[in-house]
Amino acid sequence: MLTFQKYALGALQTNAYVVVNSERTHAVVIDPGTADGALMRKLDGLKVEAILLTHAHFDHIGGVDALRRKYGCPVYIHSAEKDWLTDAAKNGSLRWSDVTPAIVTDPPEHLLADGQSLQLVGETFLVKHTPGHSPGSVSFLVGDLLFAGDALFRRSIGRTDLPGGNQDQLARSIREKLYVLPDEVLVLPGHGPETTIGEERKENPFVR
């Protein structure tokens, strides 16, 4: 059975996820905001197949290069943010210099597109382009798990006042890409506690 572990990292307590296959031999890392020691220890002895990024804001990418160097794993990001890893202005680390140094990493190895399927750790990761928080925001659906990044939170949604954000677009993304999923799908957001699609469809005050 696929398992996952959440790590709240960095000044903004960004959720990173380590997803491990049932044999506990292979892993995928989603949104490594820092090269956290506990996260790295979780990966010891595992084959890290990929780093998946829901988007490229600084608090989601701070650990990318450290993990990529240590584990030799490729990085995946949506094509709309293909140059954000290499540009500290675009990923926001210049703007938030009080909480982070400037972050510049190597380019991604792979670009994602809406509807793409990735075969990783023996599972299918379905890419759902969910822009609005940022132009290249994506959510990853794996069975009944949804790694939603900063699109959908428990009783909230991602902020849209950053460059490239759009509130109407985010609401459309949530209604058309996420709320159509079954009630029992577990939403694993980029910040804060988990929730379900059914709960948010009924209770989220920002998108009905």
UniProtKB/TrEMBL annotation:
<keyword id="KW-0862">Zinc</keyword>
<dbReference type="InterPro" id="IPR036866">
    <property type="entry name" value="RibonucZ/Hydroxyglut_hydro"/>
</dbReference>
<dbReference type="GO" id="GO:0016787">
    <property type="term" value="F:hydrolase activity"/>
</dbReference>
<dbReference type="Pfam" id="PF00753">
    <property type="entry name" value="Lactamase_B"/>
</dbReference>
<keyword id="KW-0479">Metal-binding</keyword>
<dbReference type="GO" id="GO:0046872">
    <property type="term" value="F:metal ion binding"/>
</dbReference>
<dbReference type="InterPro" id="IPR001279">
    <property type="entry name" value="Metallo-B-lactamas"/>
</dbReference>
<dbReference type="InterPro" id="IPR051453">
    <property type="entry name" value="MBL_Glyoxalase_II"/>
</dbReference>
<protein>
    <submittedName>
        <fullName>MBL fold metallo-hydrolase</fullName>
    </submittedName>
</protein>
<keyword id="KW-0378">Hydrolase</keyword>
<feature type="domain" description="Metallo-beta-lactamase">
    <location>
        <begin position="13"/>
        <end position="191"/>
    </location>
</feature>
<comment type="function">
    <text>Counteracts the endogenous Pycsar antiviral defense system. Phosphodiesterase that enables metal-dependent hydrolysis of host cyclic nucleotide Pycsar defense signals such as cCMP and cUMP.</text>
</comment>
